[in-house]
Amino acid sequence: MSPSEASTTSRLGPWTSEPTGLDMRNTMGRYLTGVAVVTAVDAAGAHHGSTISSLQSISLEPPILMLALNFGTRTGAALQEGGRFAISILGAKQEAIARRFAVRGGERFADGEFEGTPGGIPVVEGALAQAECVLHEHHVIGDHDVFFGRVTASRDRLGGPLAFLGGRFGDFRDFGHEELPWWF
What we know:
This protein is an alpha+beta fold. It has a domain at 33-160: Pnp Oxidase, Chain A (Roll). The chain is 18% helix and 40% strand. It contains four helices and twelve strands; from the N terminus they run ααβββββαβαββββββ. Strand 2 (36-41) and strand 3 (47-52) form a beta hairpin. The chain is globular, with a radius of gyration of 18 Å.
């Protein structure tokens, strides 16, 4: 790569005033996230689920997670109706499940890749981590439903996570450094 090519690829573009949805998608597409599936059971007992990359631990004491879904999804409605939900943090080899839960329509729970939480909410079998939550708060912010859930049960295992960056799935590569201490 020539010096001029290197300087072009290393420089940020111009600032965008009043970013559009596409501008935001491009900007936040540079942020590497994990991939999870959120599941809920509606009042009639039907299972609903969506792939998410907007998942965050908000509090350790008490344990509270935050997630965001596009406004008006069936999964969001089921979560509000039932007042409970579950999270499955996906491993690097679970891209097919992430894709199945990312599209509208179709039978997401058709294959036998699920098990139940202590409260009976389906979770992805073999996921790296699973958590069952009780709905703590719900807010509509912009074009998203934002949910806060108090974790009532959780479990995890070692393994490589499924990652999402710039509209593509991948995995995380460890640089081989010592593990950093948890500061929070």
